[in-house]
Write a structure and sequence with these properties.
261 residues; Dihydrodipicolinate Reductase, domain 2; single chain; 6-stranded parallel beta sheet; 10 helices; Rossmann fold; 5-stranded mixed beta sheet; binds NADP nicotinamide-adenine-dinucleotide phosphate; 2 domains; alpha/beta
Length: 261
């Protein structure tokens, strides 16, 4: 039996993950539904202690907010509990902080737990390599529901990072966040632009366009429900508990890291 604790359990993803667990007899929940954004870091940690009691969960799955995740990671490291983190929107400093905190335990951190999105990342890396010698402009479009807190999405940033690394560009210099407006002139060659669309109940859609002269290639992944992320998080939970300490992502789990980088 896999005993899972969930943080951010009252949120959209937390609920989708709990529903996913319900489908399996060999997974049980030590739920952390009472932990909320109203609580301080200490209160959250005490609450997790109270809920889990003596029995530490086999894995802690987190879909909350960057600040909360850092507090939960400290709890997981203290209790020696492997962690799966689906929360997005971390700054680079917060990512470094997480890696430092999680050093003693196995942890899987991925801004997108969908199998197809991870496959799409690989396809994007391949396309960037194959198209390296041509003049190809890269544009990224991401679409999400009206309540998404961060923009651009961490998934879109990873898409840009893959292209920048394969092209040997500095991501910070090549990235363009804003929509274009006014007399902007020709597009610079060394640019990766991300457009963020927010509206209604859209779940998640990511497209990359490789625009050449006379032809273009577009790779799109669409999620029509939260189920692909929940499924991925459960698969990650089963995998991470068998790994030695270290910070991993879904690409490691799927054996796609080496082909990607
Ligand atoms: N990796 C993936 O595949 C994937 C897929 C979809 C979404 N996500 C990410 O998962 C995260 C959650 O998304 P969501 O749509 O479920 O958001 P949501 O509906 O807003 O839920 C967020 C949850 O986190 C809790 N929370 C927020 N701030 C907190 C804090 N400071 N301390 C304790 N708890 C806190 C909320 O508790 P309250 O209800 O008390 O505020 C709520 O339970 C986001 O970062 C999102 O981008 C990742």
């Amino acid at each position: 039996m896999l005993h899972v604790a969930v943080t951010g359990a009252s949120g959209r993803m937390g609920r989708a993950f709990l529903a996913q667990i319900e489908e399996y007899d060999d997974v049980g929940t030590l739920a952390a539904t009472t932990v909320s954004s109203e609580m301080s870091e200490k209160e959250s940690s005490d609450c997790l202690d109270q809920i889990c009691g003596e029995q530490a969960p086999d894995v802690l799955v987190d879909f909350s907010s960057p600040e909360a995740t850092i507090a939960y990671a400290a709890w997981a490291a203290k209790r020696n509990v492997p962690m799966v983190i689906g929360t997005t929107g971390f700054t680079l400093t917060q990512l470094d902080q997480l890696a430092e905190i999680l050093h003693p335990v196995p942890a899987l951190l991925s801004p997108n737990m969908s199998l197809m999105m991870n496959l799409a990342w690989r396809m994007m890396a391949n396309a960037t390599m194959v198209l390296a010698n041509d003049t190809i402009d890269v544009e990224i479009i991401e679409k999400h529901h009206r309540d998404k807190r961060n923009a651009p999405s961490s998934t879109a940033l990873k898409m840009a990072q893959i292209v920048a690394e394969k092209r040997g560009w500095s991501l910070a210099q090549a990235l363009r966040h804003n929509a274009r407006w006014g007399m902007i002139g020709s597009r610079p060659e060394k640019e990766i632009a991300i457009a963020s669309v927010r509206g209604g109940s859209l779940i998640s859609e990511h497209s990359i366009i490789f625009a050449g002269l006379g032809e273009s290639l577009e790779i799109t992944q669409r999620s029509q429900s939260l189920e692909p992320f929940a499924k991925g998080a459960l698969r990650a939970s089963r995998w991470i508990i068998k790994q030695p300490p270290g910070v991993y992502d879904m690409l490691d789990m799927l054996g796609l890291s080496e082909v990607l980088y």
